[in-house]
Amino acid sequence: MGRLFLISLEGNFYSCKHCQAHLAHCDDIISKSFHCRHGKAYLFEKVVNVTYGEKEERMMMTGVHVVSDMFCVGCGSMVGWKYESALEKSQKYKEGKFILERFKMLGADGSHYIITHDGQLVGSDAEE
Ligand SMILES: [Zn+2]
């Protein structure tokens, strides 16, 4: 396995709430209007310090997508998922983009996300 090298971001970024590994830069947010089982989720252009699970087809609110779950390399906890491909033409813009669950991250100011119970949508995510 060897040593774990974590990429460090500068400026305003989100980090893993468990191990503080940096995950994504605030400037790389594409959309904040996604949902997951734990409330809000953000779509990012790029993320760092994650590993990917198996690709699988998953039914989302906006149709079937091929996604891979993403895990923090620091502590192994699931932090979101990557859109590998979308079957619906209107959803193609998500391909190669990343979802991070707000609940799993610390904000730029170190803030925790409190679940407000407005995000209880079944099957996780999608944009509204
Ligand atoms: Zn972590």
Automatic annotation (TrEMBL):
Residues 12-109 form the Yippee domain. InterPro entries: Yippee, Yippee/Mis18/Cereblon, Yippee_fam. The keyword Isomerase does not apply. Keywords: Metal-binding, Zinc. The keyword Metal-binding applies. GO terms for molecular function: metal ion binding. Belongs to the yippee family. This is Protein yippee-like. It comes from Oldenlandia corymbosa var. corymbosa.
